[in-house]
Design goal:
This protein is α+β, with helices and mostly antiparallel strands. It is 54% helix and 9% strand. It is built from 22 helices and 10 strands. The protein has helices at residues 2-22, 37-41, 50-65, 83-91, 101-104, 109-114, 124-137, 145-168, 179-194, 208-220, 223-227, 239-261, 265-268, 278-287, 293-324, 326-337, 346-350, 353-365, 399-403, 406-409, 425-438, 454-471, and strands at 67-72, 75-80, 96-98, 176-177, 371-377, 381-383, 387-389, 394-398, 472-476, 496-501. The relative contact order is 0.15. Heme binds at residue 451. Belongs to the cytochrome P450 family. Pfam families: p450.
């Protein structure tokens, strides 16, 4: 009898715990559709991609109601995908304030990684970080030499790997998994462009900072801890989380030491601010006491992470999409080969309409930051005049959803059609701006908090594709089937490609 009673009490307390953890707060808008909790937890037992999850559970309620209640990172939040709701959120920073993991789950592994930084903070700190870092992120004349040099190096590596793959496969069409080398390329370009440092990931083996990125990406999005961040409070029980905290600290210290020991101070005094890189600007701010050591570290890390990760994953999506869409690949190559130079500059690539349209369309169908819940209401709000939201409620957006909505983009919304952007670069830029302001195209967010690195990312992609398509053509390996990431950054997993030189 005692054993049975103990078991029953155990079930009772477990049930109370589940209710406490998963119950919906009474002040959340109950008229919004509720996405079942298991949808957020599905990656614990299933490998469905973000596209599959969206199509099966999110599309209909989001397109019909514009917003839903969803379980995310240990709490119920509001997810939005209707343009007029999105623009209202983006335009009202003082009501729907940016806030990241350092506010939502400050004890967590991810909070220890990102800290309080230019992307996820609000108010005076955001203004301070922006004042310091913006000149290094929004240059009118980024040096494209590192982009060209590293892109050429990446192409050479991929071609050599293709040669080895063919030899190992007894002359058959062996394929090349592209992600690891694309990551090295993205880190190298980011380092030379923002941190005044060449990590030489493409030239050297086992560069620790790059190896740590692979570990960190696997660590952050482990489904159990991502959905139950409270477990990060107990690293002594969950030893994998203790190791995760150690990894985050190793990355931080290594990056910090690289930047501070990089000889640079001699030329800072005479160098114009427009020529200075983000690392220099942050270091000067640290030296004069504008920011403290913790803020310096956090903004170094977020620069490193975001300035390589998004372009890396967009490039992975590019290999997939153009590898199966050979008509677009060939047309783009024709435009590139028609340019009377093999050394791309900012002026050259920015005048190329089909290159511009292709990248805009890639960002529409494969936005790297596909979903983000990183705003919190500072006081009660009424979104769109009909959704009453209490204070301290987390609100987010789904870029993938709004950008493939047939009600917005027409019946071909899920098809890859660069021509939809227009025929001239001016038309395309105008459409890009219009759709962003309307909240129908938000790969870089919008309004006052749009990504400061937007121009750099577009330029880097243009340079990479210019170099790549002049030298190689590619198809998707016959054994590869598309599988997108289940959460986090949107991109194909393990994309495998067959390369050939253009002259072949």
């Amino acid at each position: 009898m005692t054993i049975i009673l103990t078991i029953l009490l155990g079930f009772f307390f477990f049930g109370v715990l589940l209710w406490y953890y998963f119950h919906i707060p009474g002040d959340l808008p109950r008229h919004l559709p509720l996405i079942p909790v298991y949808v957020s937890l599905i990656s614990l037992w299933n490998d469905m991609g973000q596209d599959e999850i969206y199509e099966r559970w999110l599309r209909k309620p989001l397109e019909k109601h514009g917003a839903v209640l969803i379980w995310f990172a240990g709490r119920w939040s509001i997810l939005v995908a209707r343009p007029r709701y999105l623009t209202e959120i983006f335009r009202n920073e003082d009501l729907y304030a940016k806030a990241g993991s350092q506010v939502k789950i400050p004890w967590s592994v991810i909070a220890s990684l990102v800290g309080d930084n230019i992307i996820n903070t609000h108010g005076e700190n955001w203004k301070l970080y922006t004042q310091i870092m913006k000149p290094g992120m929004q240059k009118r004349d980024f040096d494209t030499n590192p982009m060209v040099r590293k892109s050429e190096r990446l192409v050479d590596i991929l071609l050599e790997k293709q040669r080895v793959a063919k030899c190992n496969d007894l002359g058959h069409e062996g394929g090349v998994a592209v992600n690891s080398d694309v990551q090295k390329w993205a880190i190298d370009v980011m380092g030379e462009s923002f941190l005044d440092y060449d990590f030489q990931c493409l030239e050297k083996s086992h560069v620790r900072v790059e190896e740590l990125q692979t570990i960190i990406k696997k660590t952050l999005f482990q489904p159990l801890y991502f959905n139950f961040p409270v477990l990060d409070k107990y690293p002594n029980i969950f030893t994998s989380r203790r190791r995760a905290f150690v990894i985050m600290k190793e990355f931080e210290d290594k990056l910090y030491n690289i930047v501070l020991t990089n000889p640079r101070k001699e030329r800072q005094a005479t160098e114009k601010i427009k020529n200075k890189q983000v690392a220099q600007l942050l270091e000067e701010a640290l030296d004069v006491g504008k920011i403290n050591d913790t803020q310096f570290r956090a903004n170094l890390k977020i620069t490193f992470l975001t300035a390589h990760e998004n372009v890396q994953q967009l490039m992975n999506s590019t290999f997939w999409e153009l590898g199966k869409n050979l008509e677009v690949q060939n047309r783009l190559r024709t435009e590139i080969l028609g340019v009377e130079t093999d050394t791309p500059t900012t002026e050259v690539v920015n005048r190329m309409p089909y290159l511009t349209a292709t990248i805009f369309e890639l960002l529409r169908l494969y936005p790297p930051v596909s979903q983000l819940i990183n705003r919190v209401t500072l006081q009660p709000a009424v979104l769109g005049g009909d959704i009453h939201i209490p204070a301290r409620t987390w609100v987010g957006w789904n870029a993938y959803g709004v950008q493939i909505d047939k009600n917005i983009w027409g019946p071909t919304a899920q098809e890859f059609i660069p021509e939809r952007w227009g025929t001239t670069v001016d038309e395309m830029q105008a459409k890009f701006r219009k759709e962003t302001v309307r909240g129908t195209y938000i790969p870089f967010n919008a309004h006052t908090r749009k990504c400061l690195g937007q121009g750099f990312a577009l330029l880097e992609m243009k340079i990479m594709l210019f170099v790549l398509l002049r030298k190689v053509k590619w198809t998707i390996h016959q054994d590869y089937t598309l599988k997108l990431t289940p959460g986090g950054i949107l991109a194909p997993i393990g994309c495998k490609v067959v390369f050939r030189r253009v002259e072949d």
